[in-house]
Amino acid sequence: MAVKDEGAAWSIFGYLLSGLLFWGGAGWLMDHWLKTHFFLLGGLVLGAGAAIYLVWLRFGRE
Amino acid sequence: MRSLHLLRMEGAGFVPPSTNDFNLPPVFSNNPYTTKPVLLVFLSVIVVSIFFIMASRKAAIVPSRLQFAGEKIYEFVRNDVARDNIGHEFMRFVPYLFTLFTFVLTNNIFGIVPLLQFPAMSHVSFPYVLAIFTFIVFHYVGIRKQGIGKYLKDIMFMPGVPKAAYILLTPLELATFFIVRPLTLSLRLFANMFAGHLLLLVFILGGDHLLKGVIGLKLISPFAFAFGIGLTFFEFMVQCLQAYIFTLLTALYIAGALADEH
Lengths: 62, 262
What we know:
The structure holds two protein chains of two kinds. Chain A is elongated and about 45 Å long. The longest helix of chain A has 33 residues, at 2-34. Chain A is mostly helical. Chain A has two helices and no strands. Chain A has helices at residues 2-34, 39-60. Chain B is mainly α. The model of chain B has no long low-confidence stretch (mean pLDDT 88).
């Protein structure tokens, strides 16, 4: 069981990281093109939210 | 006052360890590929091969000490890593997992073996290659087992989610499976080995430099060495743990690719 938990911990970390990187990155690109400043922040929040949702879907539903 | 001045002079002479300490010159100057990490990787292959050939050559019901050690390592990978995570198809993956574990473990431990004292995995290209192997293995296994369409569909579309949420979630699933997983797998191993080696360098080189200083600094030097020795034991733990985690995550990724729904 401990082994499974360790695997789950690392995949949760992976989801959070990809959430921040993908949607944060998308927001950063929007800022870069549109010369604005709020898309990066919005993207990071959105990415973190989506990642937590995904973690809940995968590990919290049973 | 004078000793303070000397202290400052001493400080100026000390070159703190940096990333330059990881770029070692070729051992044979006419061949740029014969650097220490490359030679250590070859040595590790030889060491692992010889160890397990010796351990399994005279296999007996009542095992010798060497055979016992070899069997324990094999049983650990086979039972605790492969069987407990992958399930009934685990035997197919034991050779890969076992090779991976012993190879990474040996190379990591080279970081604290006297005279060798360099973990090859602190050069990021070695973990990259290992992670690419794992990447190919677990995607290939998943595609073979489920067909490419179903495999990708399972990754991209989690069941029981409102359709609109897929806009948010699908890119994350793809990024996790195809970029973040291999990247974190390799960087975790690399960063642990790199940081560990640097930490040992700081304390051992620092202790050595203090020993060459004025009497006050000489008295501090043993503490630096003591810390260095303590951290060497700590490093041994980290090295074993990282080899285990690399193998374990590979097994979990394979298990995820084999499972019909994850």
